[in-house]
Amino acid sequence: MSRVKGVNVKARAVQDRALGDVRGYTFTDCCPSFAPGWEVGRRDDPDPCPWKTDLSLCWQTCYWTGQVPDAFHYNSWYDQCGNINNDWRELCAIPDNG
Amino acid sequence: MVFRVGEFVAVEHGGRRLAWHVPTSGLFELDPVSFRLLAASERLGGAVADEVLAGVIAPELGVSPEEARSAAGELLALGLLVPAGRPQHLDQRLVDLAPKRKGVASLVVHVAHTCNLACHYCYADHGKYGGPDSLMTEETARRFVDFLFDNDPEAPRLRLTFFGGEPLLNFPVVRLAADHARARAAREGRRAVFALTTNGTLVTEEMAAYLAEIDCSVTVSIDGDRKTNDLLRPFHGGRGSYDRIIERVAPLLARCRTVARVTLTRRDLDVVRIVEHLLGVGFREVGVTPVDAGDPRFDLGPGDYEALLVGLGALADRYRDEALQGRRFGFSNVETVLKAFHQGQNKDYACGAGVSMIAGSPDGKMSLCHRFVGKEGFEVGSLEAGLDTRRDVMLDRIHLSNRTDCATCWARYVCSGGCHYANHLHGGDVRRTYLAHCDWLRAWYRKGLEVYADVVLGNPSFVQRYIDPDYLCAVQ
Predict the structure, then answer these.
(1) Alpha-carbon gap, residue B188 to B192, rounded angstroms
(2) What CA–CA distance (Å, rounded) separates B421 from B372?
(3) Which of B167, B270, B255, B267 lies closest to B217, judged by CA?
(4) Looking at the domain that runs over B3-90, which CATH code has it been given?
């Protein structure tokens, strides 16, 4: 955020949210998004939520299939990402085919 | 990605480039590239594709396509640019004052429906509100206080405003209601805060001492110097009230937080002279409001608003100059907009009327607010039945979404449609925005944005001290 500076309280709140938003959807530390990247907290730290620290576990077993791609159709989705803390940017997006 | 401009107001002021983002009420300062990128995108109209960004806008700004994309990405993340093809109404709003339909935490108690003055523009029929002269009984006042404390048991802070007519004509009931509220607050671990609006002519030392004891904020209605005030605010016999007010408010000025409230009419719009005079006689703060009399002798016309803006602008400049020196100039209209802009106020209702505040009459009826007391169709409950479904109907009617006139106004989440009473009086319907106000209000808000930017960027500690609500809460 080098070119734009939040001046009032609301602008700074909006900027905080925009900063933490790795794919343009995340509003808080938790994830309302269908896109991968949700496991990263707003300061680019791994989210402290214990449910989400082990992404592969979530990927296989999460009760909410919207969180991550289902392992049946996207079984290589996680291959690029060797270490979730370091390589989360490698997670590919799942194309939205409507 | 194809994008278009989001909804914002660009302000170039004092060498700074600012953008007020309408959906969120965020104020941003932009570097020259971002600011010009927004301007170029706006000029190009509907939608800007990547080829246009890289091939037209970037060369125009003198930056590489990558830099232009990076700047556009940042603006997209903040909503100043938005993906094209997305309907406007899906723009993200961060509403900090979401509809609060819980309880009423603020009650305007009409302890006296009678007045010893006969102000020419009075909306309240010289204090009688269309009924007979009447005073609230002790029993009714006590029940109103109980209603306030009982209707939302979780509200930590309850506000009681004594109003009239002239409330000091019934001071024993003011005292009884305040004592009762203080006793309940102490018993329940809550806080009662008090305010009183008076014409100032009946204040005694004893009253001032009591109001100071309960830490009551006092608003004195006075319209300027002797000449202007006496023209507009005479006693029933015709004698002017100025000398009497000045004589009687002295103990209030010495002991209480006392603010002067000026009703502006077209008879005198020299707002700089009026404000400086009242600060000069000892009021700590002065606020002004254009009258809504429904009478062309007093109501402002289009040319009058332009004249008023000149004076208000001069007072706003004075406020800014003092604030940059760390001093507080007591013109409360500026401070009100600075607080709204600092917080990024973004609201669905113009004011608290019906939402968190109602008015109670001597006959036990409850109205949308003090200005609607006695007006048919604006009752929202009674002491017997409490708040009823008429309140819900009214809250639906006065919601911003009903104000079609406001749909494209950049100031709609700050002003939220203006005073319900003014809309009702001038347009015959609370949903019909009083458009004569709109141009000058927008100009006033724009001036406020400039002053806010100057002060918050030039002297942040002043804002922290006087404008930031967190700090205000902490020191109270």
Answers:
(1) 11
(2) 7
(3) B255
(4) 1.10.10
**Nearest-CA distance from A41 to chain B in Å?**
17
Any A CB within 8 A of B33 CB: yes
Domains held by chain A: number:
1
Residues from chain B contacting residue A13 (CB–CB below 8 Å): 26, 94, 344
Residue ranges of the domains in chain B? 3-90
Nearest Cα neighbor of A83 from A42, A60, A55, A47 is A55
Using CA atoms, how far apart are residues B367 and B354, in angstroms rounded to an integer?
Answer: 8
Q: Is B23 in CB contact (< 8 Å) with chain A?
A: no
| A7: nearest CB among B33, B76, B457 | B457
Contact residues, chain A, for B77 at CB < 8 Å: 18, 21, 24
Q: Least CB-CB distance to A10: which of B25, B75, B452? A: B25
Q: Measuring CA to CA, how many Å separate B252 from each of B84, B221, B283?
A: 59, 13, 9
Distance separating alpha carbons of residues B304 and B257, to the nearest angstrom? 32
Number of neighbours of residue B229 by Cβ within 10 angstroms = 25
In a domain, A76, yes or no: yes
Above 0.90 for ipTM, yes or no?
A: no
Taking an 8 Å cut-off on Cβ atoms, the answer to whether A9 and B25 are in contact is: no
Q: Do A5 and B29 touch (CB under 8 A)?
A: yes
Domain limits for position A25: 9-90
Q: Which residues of A are less than 8 Å from B21 in CB distance?
A: 11, 14
At B145-198, the pLDDT tens digits run: 999 999 988 889 999 999 999 999 999 999 999 999 999 999 999 999 999 999
Give the minimum alpha-carbon distance from B111 to chain A in angstroms, rounded to a whole number. Answer: 39
- The answer to whether residue A37 neighbours chain B at the CB level (below 8 Å) is no
Cβ of A13 within 8 Å of Cβ of B26? The answer is yes
Q: Is the peptide bond before B326 cis (omega within 30 degrees of 0)?
A: no
Q: Cα(B112)–Cα(B171) distance, rounded to whole angstroms?
A: 9
Return averaged pLDDT per consecutive 10 residues of chain B, 476 residues in all: 90 94 93 96 89 94 95 91 70 51 87 96 90 96 97 91 96 98 97 96 97 96 97 96 97 95 96 97 94 90 90 98 96 94 89 92 96 92 94 90 89 92 91 89 96 95 85 38
A96 touches chain B (CB under 8 A): no
Which residue, among B96, B40, B113, has the nearest Cα to B71 in the 3D structure? Answer: B40
Q: Whole-model pTM? A: 0.82
Among the partner residues B27, B74, B80, nearest to A7 by beta-carbon distance: B27
